[in-house]
Amino acid sequence: MLGAGTLHSSETRAEGVARELLAIRGWKTTRPPKGNLLWKNEYRDYPELLEALSGRGKQGLGGDGYPDFILIDSDTQRPLLVGETKAAHGDIRKAIKEAQDYSTGLLDRGMKVLAAGVAGDD
After folding, report:
1. What distance in Å separates the CA atoms of residue 46 and residue 33, rounded to the nearest whole number?
2. What is the tens place of the pLDDT at every residue in 59-74?
3. In this structure, what is the dihedral angle of CA atoms 42, 18, 75, 55, given to the nearest 10 degrees?
4. Which of 75, 88, 103, 116 could disulfide-link to 83, CB 3.0 to 4.6 Å?
């Protein structure tokens, strides 16, 4: 019999899955300049990203966008992928939709990015 904690999934675990998937594909999962990955609000150190995500909040109330992660090209410092994670497997469509919504702000400024959703912890 499994304990209650064994069945518990969390967004933190989904973030770990996202990090592993990127590492498997050869991306450095540390923050630039040594790596390629910005987590949560770390993008705020990049004025171009800050401007693109301004007013792109999840609730549609004019707040700033807050994607879970942004993959950055280490040579050009340009965003390549915007990602959103969700704890439950059943929330994959929600994760993808939110990542797409965030990516729209970047696309509107001529930055070609992919949107990715990760849901669940395995």
Report:
1. 12
2. 555 667 789 999 999 8
3. -40
4. 116
